[in-house]
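hey m, so remember when u said the tokens were messed up on ur end? i reran from scratch. heres the input so u can diff it against urs
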Amino acid sequence: MNARTIVAVAACLALGACESSHDNFDKSTQYGPDPQLPEPSRALLPRMNVSKVVGWQQGETPTVPQGFKIEAIATGLSNPRNVLALANGDLLVVESQKNGKEPLERPKRKVMDIVEAKAHGGTGSGPSNRILLLRDSNGDGKPDSQSVLIDNLNAPFGIVLVGDQLYVADTDAILRYPYKMGDTKVGGNATKVCDLPAGAINHHWTKSLTANADGSKLYVGVGSNSNILERGTIAEMNRADILEVDPKTGAYTVFAQGLRNPNGLTFYPGSDVLWTVVNERDELGPNLVPDYMTSVKRGAFYGWPYSYWGQNVDQRVRPQRPDLVKAAIKPDYGLSSHVAPLGLAFYTGGSFPAQFKGGAFIGEHGSWNRPERNGYKVVFVKFENGKPVGQPMDFVTDFLKGPDARGRPVGVAVDKTGALIVADDVGNTVWRVTANGATS
């Protein structure tokens, strides 16, 4: 059976098992603090709708709201997954690819390999697993030089600068490099801060990273090694967690648990409140479970794998843990199901209109486990008094062109001028969004 046949059979099996009521579900009812949760709908194989990657043609760009403009500031990259905007105007771009395929441990793994290659793989053919430095020397908002800052990394994703120390989260370790802002090279070899869960089977390989205000602690998100514990509890050691790391010693403790795949870790501006966006579980139907954005409480448990959105028990999980389900807390804000949020940045700039101040931009990589595509855009969620309110606003859209994906947004950041920066991994582009009339 060839790859195309496998996917076709999987799709047919899944389609036959889904109820028509799910197709008519209004996904807008899953935004906010109290999302609608339909009954689970299971199939022999998950329902799949995967976009073919076609890339951006000359002159094409995503769409932004009236009053804004978007332009590509770096093209022809190789899977740019994350971006860090430095105070001097430099941008650090993380190019990253997972090395090798996971072992074929279950028959379904063959199908999922095909899905993941199509849904998550980029089209870049050049070097990856490195960090690029983009520099705008004349202040016009467009980088005029590009150089390799760090090379030969192992599927990096998270990155944060603390003083003169640059921390990078590879898939299997946090590394520290001496680096002075403004330099074009790091000042020495990497020092390993600590190991991170990885291995031959490394289901969620991106490790998001941030630091608290004084740099005394690092926070790293480690996604689960399965959908719902099918690889057993040993495979999930220190996974589906946010870890708090002492950068001096490498010692770490579990800050929060039960977050299936936490990304976009960042502190709310001017506070000590950590926020994250989370990819929830699959294979319960096209409208379960809503992905979400939430503040993260020390010592809290957020449900995975035993329950979702509080005490909604996932009956597939063995063994059951009613004690943990009882302790599970609800996230702050639903983003609807299967949008795959991977980037989060609070707007701290001054060039966008006032209503954007303090709100959240979220990079949604896009769905594969639902018939109607969801995500594939950057959304904005307004905040009031440090909490998300209202419906999300579609802010950077049209990454899809019909059934095909021209790009998929991942990491987001706000640069020195207040512009929004978006890393587009399968479009191999970094985009910059400015308000009309704003100065560079």
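this time it looks ok to me. The CA atoms of residues 346 and 360 lie 4 Å apart. if urs says something different then somethings off w ur setup not the seq
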